[in-house]
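Hi R.,

As promised on Friday, here is the backbone we talked about, encoded as C-alpha cells. Could you run it through your design pipeline when you get a chance and send me back a sequence?
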C-alpha cells in the first residue's frame, strides 16, 4: 500500500513559449478564468513560437490552427490555446509543423506564430495552457512569474 503512495509519478510540464506567467483567473475569458476547460495557467508571450511542453502524442489540432492538444505518456491531456478569440482568424497567423498522431519531445516546434498579426487581429495574445482532464489529476502550479520556453517547469501533475 505504501509503495503505491510513494510511486505516484509526477509529470513536469514545461513552458511552451517564453513570457510572463498568469493565473487562469487573470484571463479575460470565462471559459478559461472559470476553469471550464480545466486547471492550468496562462502565458503572456514575449516572443517565439509554440513548442511541446511534454513528451507525448498530438491528439488535436484545431481546424483554425489556434489550439493544439497533447497526450502525455501518463495520460495527462494538455491543451495550448494560442490567444483569445483567435478562432475568428481562420488559421491566419499560424503555421502548424506537426500533425495529429505525431510523437513529440519537449521543446519540439509545434506551431509558428505571427504574434504581431495575432495582437492586431484578436482580442489578446494571452495563451492558456490547460490540463483538460484535471478532474483526474492533481495539478500543482510552480509559482514562477516569468518562463523560458523548454526550460521553465510551469506545472506538475500527478494522479489523485
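Update: got your reply. Pasting your designed sequence below so it's all in one thread:
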Amino acid at each position: 500500500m505504501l509503495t503505491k503512495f510513494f510511486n505516484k509519478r509526477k509529470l513536469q510540464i514545461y513552458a511552451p513559449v517564453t513570457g510572463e506567467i498568469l493565473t487562469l483567473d487573470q484571463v479575460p475569458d470565462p471559459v478559461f478564468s472559470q476553469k471550464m476547460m480545466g486547471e492550468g495557467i496562462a502565458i503572456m508571450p514575449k516572443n517565439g513560437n509554440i513548442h511541446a511542453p511534454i513528451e507525448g502524442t498530438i491528439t488535436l489540432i484545431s481546424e483554425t490552427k489556434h489550439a493544439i492538444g497533447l497526450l502525455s505518456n501518463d495520460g495527462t491531456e494538455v491543451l495550448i490555446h494560442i490567444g483569445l478569440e483567435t478562432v475568428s482568424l481562420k488559421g491566419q497567423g499560424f503555421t502548424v509543423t506537426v500533425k495529429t498522431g505525431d510523437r513529440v519531445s519537449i521543446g519540439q516546434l509545434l506551431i509558428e506564430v505571427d504574434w504581431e498579426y495575432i495582437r492586431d487581429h484578436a482580442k489578446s495574445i494571452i495563451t492558456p495552457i490547460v490540463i483538460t482532464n484535471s478532474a483526474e489529476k492533481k495539478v500543482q502550479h510552480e509559482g514562477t512569474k516569468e518562463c523560458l520556453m523548454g526550460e521553465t517547469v510551469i506545472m506538475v501533475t500527478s494522479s489523485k
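One thing I noticed while checking it: The domain at 10-155 is CATH 2.70.70.10 (Glucose Permease (Domain IIA)).

Thanks again,
M.
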